[in-house]
Design a protein that fits this description.
The protein has six helices and 14 strands. It has 254 residues and is an alpha+beta fold. The strands form three sheets. Strands 7-8-9-10-12-13-14-11 form an eight-stranded mixed sheet. Strands 1-6-5-4 form a four-stranded antiparallel sheet, with no helix packed on it. It has a two-stranded antiparallel sheet with strand order 2-3. The longest helix is centred in the middle third of the chain and has 11 residues, at 107-117. 31% of the residues are buried. The structure holds zinc ion. The site of zinc ion (ZN) has 6 residues, from loops.
């Protein structure tokens, strides 16, 4: 299990050659791995896994995590009731957890993680399965040109979004451009935000979201727009849903 931060002399540090430190999750000794094959990381001895939910970190994880303050990254969360501990990829000071998911997980693990963190958002690497990008390009050809926060309600979203992720109880942001994180390409590579509930029973509601908007949401103490409110708007306006600028005003304060 590899992490970006370990405690060295009580301080959170990134790996440097020859350093050893302590895992903030389990307290075990970890060794800095600073090679050329993989991103620099701290490794536990042997195959020890102190958090079964942790996945091997890739450049994709690191780029995403680095858009947030260091002190928010790899935050240890402990359940008051069971003592269970997990390391969240990013947790804002207001408790919103953002998990960046690159590899496949079981449905049971997905549900457990949503249940454990509750106030969380998934950011899913949509480039992992080769078929996912062609599916959205075909099933929703104009997805790239939709303005941010133009809400759409559709039946059978699993026809163009990865089916594993369409039944979550928390918002899911699909990242179909992978490593294209960064302001220069901002306009061309919005995320698709799928809200957890359904509009009129069975239509899924989703909208494009800029990467910077996600970072802004995390910084502004707000959460993803309240989906119940969005559905009320959809009903009241007969799908003429407000545009991004006024819509962003109703992000609910946490
Ligand atoms: Zn550990």
């Amino acid at each position: 299990m590899n992490v970006k931060f370990a405690l060295v002399g009580g301080e959170r540090r990134e790996p440097e050659p020859t350093l050893t430190g302590q895992c903030p999750g389990c307290g075990e000794t970890v060794t800095a791995k600073c090679g050329t094959q993989r991103v620099w990381h701290w490794a536990h001895k042997g195959l020890r896994t102190c958090d079964p939910w942790w996945e091997p970190e890739t450049e994709w994880h690191r780029r995403w995590k680095n858009l947030f303050p260091v002190s928010w990254q790899e935050t240890v969360r402990r359940s008051e009731t069971t003592g269970e501990r997990h390391i969240a990829d990013v947790q804002t000071p207001h408790g919103l957890v953002i998990e960046f998911q690159h590899s496949t997980i079981t449905p049971a693990e997905r549900v457990s993680r949503e249940h454990f963190y509750r106030d969380m958002i998934w950011v899913v690497d949509g480039t992992l399965a080769k078929k996912d990008r062609p599916r959205i390009d075909k099933g929703l050809p104009d997805w790239r040109w939709q303005p941010e926060n133009k809400y759409t309600a559709k039946f059978l979203v699993e026809n163009f979004l990865p089916s594993f992720w369409v039944k979550c109880d928390v918002p899911v942001l699909f990242d179909f451009d992978g490593l294209l994180v960064g302001p220069s390409t901002e306009r061309q590579n919005h995320l698709i935000c799928l809200l957890p509930n359904r509009y009129r029973e069975d239509q899924a509601v989703f909208f494009p979201m800029a990467r910077s908007t996600l970072v802004g949401i995390a910084n502004n103490e707000t959460s993803i727009p309240d989906w119940r409110e969005i559905c009320r708007d959809l009903d009241a306006n007969r799908m003429q849903v407000p545009t991004a600028s006024n819509r962003l005003q109703v992000l609910y304060r946490r």
